Amino acid sequence: MGTHSMYSSFWLTTCAVLIPGILWASWIDYKERRVPNWLNAAIAAAGFLAQGYFFGLSGLGTACAGLAVGFAVLIVPWLMHGMGAGDVKLMMAIGVWLGPYVTFMSFCVGALVGGVIAIAMIATPLFVKSLGSQGAHAMSSGIGQQAVAAMAAVPTKGMSIAAKGRAAYSGSSSFVGKKYANYQAEKKRKMDMYRY
Question: Which residues of 139-175 are buried (b: 16+ CB within 10 A; e: fewer)?
């Protein structure tokens, strides 16, 4: 097998596995607000097998580096409660297939697109109303923009962005609002525990 046909075969295999896998993971995340571990593990395992089959040990090294980059780009948003751990694991599994450089570039493109969507959602209340709260979450999940979606979905006229944020976190029934409220309650509980 020539080098050109080997690369072509690898990228065809990558598209054949990653596109349906990511679409399936996105659908589950949209419906259940979680990405199953078994799906992330299956995508990653298939990526390691493909990298090893097509490129040998160097392919396995590329897969490990891509996995590390996938982890590195999303661990901070996860630590800040901006996304779920399933999103981080999915990006790691994607990194196994794409390698470090393409994984980083795909994260950058995703962050830019997510930022543009978030700005549009904040700046255009009609856009948010037409999507509804589920649509706003779907547009923003996976790239750490759930907080922006919760803020944009608060149906209040004339409020500042900061006031919308407070309303989203305190009164919204959104996933992010609940997550933030739980985080604040746990933080208060720990502070109260060490007060005496």
Answer: bbbbbbbbbbbbbbbbeeeeeeeeebbebbbeebebb
* Tally of domains in the chain: 1
Rg of the chain over Cα atoms, rounded to whole angstroms, equals 20
Please, how many CA atoms are within 13 Å of residue 65, restricted to the half-sphere of its CB? Answer: 13
CA 46 to chain centre: 20
Query: Could you report the per-residue pLDDT of 113-172, keeping only the tens digit for each?
Result: 888 888 877 777 665 555 555 555 555 444 444 444 444 444 444 444 444 444 444 444
Closest CA to 106 of 71, 70, 147: 70
Domain, as residue range, for 140: 3-193
User: Structure pTM?
Assistant: 0.63
